[in-house]
Specification:
The chain contains eleven helices and twelve strands. The chain has about 300 residues and is of the alpha+beta class.
Length: about 300
């Protein structure tokens, strides 16, 4: 096992890095008022901007080296709680004397400090609330584990993307941990419904980011959806996208932006209250052809959640 001596303690790498925690700490260290280029310069140009990009996109392969962690900690924006101990923990290192003593420890300190990652609320739990709401309204659902095009019925399969959206979608939907869920709703048009639990993207919703930065990050994350809707609307004609939020502030931020555009296919934004275990609000994204058109058993319905 890799070893690091810090503050007269021996730390050993007992597990793989928790990249969610590493990203959050690096983002905190950069701070809200400093560019990545400036952070790179403040770190004596020893950690390249490309390396920071790989780290924040969770594409860095190994735990950060001791020198890298120390430079990030030493140059963290003030005030800061980015410490070497927390960097070591996020990178999978534990105090050798603690090995085996905390097997039942729950969440990391970085998760505890992030209000957008509630300890007892997981993406799956939020999705289960949504499914319960759907089932209460008399709709039957079936789950799919892969991207929707693989499961298209024969009569729906004649359209293939000419701009590579199927390739982008495969890469984008394959991200871990799972941030999207795909369900079919029986006797419903459109049949396929893809749900995105938006607020669990911790890098998007860093407390240091302004509303403008959060909104840009959201639009950037879901850019493939909007591109395919604009340029090849037939590609997603049998699919409805749901953007799911659990915090009213970010829900309204995204809804206000969606109010300013029009799309070709069906999209909606919903607000889930995990404490009440219910969907509490919904805002359809305006369409060029008017209202979102949903049908169940041949009848037009205002909304699944109406």
């Amino acid at each position: 096992m890799e070893e690091i001596i810090y503050n007269k303690k021996k730390y050993v790498q007992e597990r793989l890095p928790n990249w969610d925690d590493v990203c959050k700490l690096v983002d905190k260290a950069k701070g809200p008022n400093r560019t990545w280029k400036k952070f790179y310069e403040d770190c004596d140009k020893k950690i390249s901007q490309a390396t920071f990009t790989r780290i924040t996109h969770k594409e860095y392969k190994k735990a950060l080296k001791e020198d890298m962690m120390q430079r990030i900690v030493d140059n963290a924006a003030k005030p800061t709680d980015v410490t070497m101990e927390r960097m070591l923990q996020a990178n999978g290192y534990v105090d050798e004397s603690d090995i085996g003593r905390n097997d039942n420890a729950s969440t990391s300190k970085a998760d505890e400090d992030n209000p957008l990652v509630p300890e007892r609320q997981t993406r799956l739990e939020v999705m289960n609330i949504i499914l319960s709401e759907i089932n209460k309204r008399g709709y039957e659902t079936q789950e799919f584990s892969k991207r929707f095009k693989s499961f298209k019925r024969d009569e729906d399969a004649e359209f293939t993307s000419q701009l590579g959206f199927d390739v982008m979608e495969k890469k984008w939907c394959g991200r871990k941990p799972k941030k999207w869920f795909l369900y079919g709703i029986d006797d419903c048009e459109p049949f396929y419904h893809m749900f995105f639990i938006a607020e669990y993207d911790e890098m998007i919703f860093s407390a240091h980011k302004s509303d403008e930065e959060k909104l840009f990050s959201l639009i950037d994350r879901y850019s493939t959806i909007f591109m395919q809707d604009a340029y090849e609307p037939k590609y997603s004609r049998d699919l409805m996208y749901w953007f799911v939020f659990i915090y009213e502030e970010t829900y309204k931020l995204f809804c206000d932006a969606m109010d300013k555009i029009k799309v070709n296919n069906n999209m909606s934004v919903i607000l889930v209250d995990p404490d009440k275990c219910k969907v509490v609000d919904e805002k359809m994204v305006p369409r060029h052809e008017g209202k979102v058109i949903l049908r169940h058993e041949g009848k037009v319905i205002p909304s699944i959640f109406d």
